[in-house]
Amino acid sequence: MSESLMRTALDLAAFRVPVLPLRVGKVPFGNCRRCTGNACGGRPNMKMSGPCSCPGPCHGWAAATADPDVIASVVWRRAWMRASAVAYHPGGAGLTVVDLDDADAVNWARENLPATQTVPTTRGEHWLYLGHMQSANGVRPGVDIKSTMAYARWLGPGTGTMAALPDTVRALAVKASVPVRPAPHAVAVPARFGGGECPHRTPVFLERGIAMAEQRITEASSAVHATVYRTFLAVLSTHGRCGCLTDTHIGRLFAAAQAKGETARHCTDAWTNARTRLGL
Question: Considering the entire predicted model, what is its pTM?
Answer without folding.
Answer: 0.63
